[in-house]
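Researcher: First entry.
Model:
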Amino acid sequence: MKIPFTNDKIVNLPVEEFNELLSKHQLSEAQLSLIRDIRRRGKNKMAAQNCRKRKLDTILNLERDVDELRHDKSRLLREKVEFLRSIRQMKQKVQSLYQEVFGRLRDEQGRPYSPSRYALQYGSDGSVLLIPRAPAPPRRQERKQKDRRK
């Protein structure tokens, strides 16, 4: 159809320059229709390429985020294991201290206090008080139900 412009020029010119270019040349309706079709297809092709690029960038960013989250998770799991180990050690130390304190405590007659009847209460000021435990509620004896088959 003898179009006086390159496809690259048709597709890449800004709208105002493109319209100005078309108005400067005497073109038939068929030529104008073809030029507009070339521009539309070219713009669509560029938009599709940009869309695919954005999609790949998004995927790469998400993969990087997933890797970071996996590293964070493994670090947090290691920290959790270490904290649990520390808690277990602290509980053992508290239990040892508890037993040592009860081993040294004596009532007015010189008898040791029973850990089952008394408890130690720790104050926020560092004080330790010996308090009687509340009596345990009486346990109900649960009866075993026999399976009766009919």
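Researcher: Second entry.
Model:
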Amino acid sequence: MVEQLRSWKRKINYKDLLLKLISLALGILVWFLAVGTDQIDVSMNIPIEVLNLPKNLVIYNQYQKEISVTLRGPRGIIQELRNRPPSLSLDLSKATSDTVVLNTETLSFPLPSGISILRMQPASITLSIDKLLERQIPVTAVTEGDVAKGYILKEISLTPDKILVSGPESLVTLEQSLKTYMINLSGLDHSTTLPVHLDLSPEFMELIGETTVVAKLAVADKFVEKKSQENSD
């Protein structure tokens, strides 16, 4: 009798378990039919990742850092892509000093099965690639006006007098010297030291940022200087 009761309980437990498994499977199937196959379109931005650019090269134009794509696929998979969007990798290991135009339609990035690409914008990506050059460029002081009457400007010294610039060869070789903003000498009757910004083109501003040098202006009394020279003779 006891064995019959145990056997009967086991049968009930197995039956309950089987019903639960069937209910779970039906639930998953209903979700898949209701959501998993519900095709939707969505637009998202995919970041562009540049890989393996040789160390002696540099990209110097403001290229597109991401592309806009319109995707179609099951709602559930699309939602996962929204949470963890893929990236578009550009392998530049074989790049040379040149301007490269990439057609985005020929590029690919990993997408789950069942996802299709409807549109990609922009239609192309332009990369301006050049040799990376490092160069010391001298700094030149630019002045206007004259020192006070009876005085002479003995010397203008700049610290630093050279700036190390690193960037694309075509740009770094453009300037023979970097000039300061105008230093006004009008009526100056004494030596002084003052900070002076460099008057940089937008391209050089991007390379080295806003840069300041220290200008030391040595001013002397013309009569005293002349007398000192005569005594030395």
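Model: Note on the second entry: Helices lie at 2-36, 75-83, 169-172, 202-208, 222-232.
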